[in-house]
């Protein structure tokens, strides 16, 4: 009786490929700050990269098509007075980004349609509430204008960005530094990894710990924990012997892991990136030169190793493109933006297929940009899963959404921009042009010209 040796999977042959040099972003001074964040955030329109800046903190925001060498005087987002530690694009508005900094503040920025033409130092709203540096910012996956921030003061604050208020403060749950925070699929729960070696599942609106696991990974180095689509929790960390580990847990009962795997003895923190549509997890180690990817299933060993993409250069950080920003015609299932010391290099993950037709099995309906809830509904206790869209014809955004903050002296006191002044002049000009013209006698020098033109005007009026 023959036994099947190789497990069948449509992702077994996924391969990564770095783009050509002319499609990279060159001459970028990537931040050297000692913090284990990804330093890069991507959406279908822009790539944002935290950079070295004198006299404060700054990050670049580049349109995706602006590849090649980036000029040293290219405008930056530069409103923080301390180094920027984390950035995150709003999932419901491709022009809004949040940043956390060593200056203890969180700032929310509105990026112009075509990118920056001048340095941007005036945020839409400043969120102040942390007493130490803010190392994590994360938008709610399904509710509009709900933002989470975690600081080195060991507290988590959940903000209503539309009003600029701190609505929920989780301050007594973590006795030490918070390494990572992850929202569940519908945003009803949080999963955190802390320096005290505990992984916690928290209901933020009830301010209650639902489940927790002590010594999820016994090593002293930082852990990461993320929610999966089915509610399970995926963690990365270190063993007592400093070997890198990954583990899978049930969120309702964390006494024993579903599985634990040891990987290698490198000391770089593993940053997990998860695709809920395909159940594939990509692990990018800081300081590594490789990306490993695994498929998570319901059959043992539950976390199946697929392959590894390797390059020569180590990575300083990594950005992960949302599914609606991928090229479905090339069977692209993931795209990473790898940060080198002076460069950002896109890496494309594809599944080889001969057919030119749309591959339904690779692209199930995915989370779109429309929020399922308003902020007030979520804070009142309502939940909603992501609103799904089809990628069959490629996703094209049709709405231009502006972030509106209802807060005194934030937007009302701003002077009108040049663009608004120009549009006002154009409107007045069009109103003036629509009024009936008055015949001016001064334009006709001779009586003959006057008579000819007056008779023409009378004829046209009679018609």
From TrEMBL:
It comes from the Eukaryota. SMART domains: DUF1899 (SM01166), DUF1900 (SM01167), WD40 (SM00320). It is found in: Cytoplasm, Cytoskeleton, Stress fiber. PROSITE patterns: WD_REPEATS_1, WD_REPEATS_2, WD_REPEATS_REGION. WD repeats lie at residues 77-111, 127-169, 171-212. InterPro entries: Coronin, DUF1899, WD40/YVTN_repeat-like_dom_sf, WD40_repeat_CS, WD40_repeat_dom_sf, WD40_rpt. The keyword Repeat applies. GO terms for molecular function: actin filament binding. Gene3D superfamilies: YVTN repeat-like/Quinoprotein amine dehydrogenase. Keywords: Actin-binding, Coiled coil, Cytoplasm, Cytoskeleton, Phosphoprotein, Repeat, WD repeat. One of its GO terms (biological process) is actin filament organization. Residues 4-68 form the DUF1899 domain. Forms homooligomers, but does not form complexes with the other coronins. Interacts with Arp2/3 complex components, including ACTR2, ARPC1B and ARPC2. Binds actin. Belongs to the WD repeat coronin family. PANTHER family: CORONIN, CORONIN-1B. This is Coronin. It comes from Seriola lalandi dorsalis. The lineage of its organism: Eukaryota, Metazoa, Chordata, Craniata, Vertebrata.
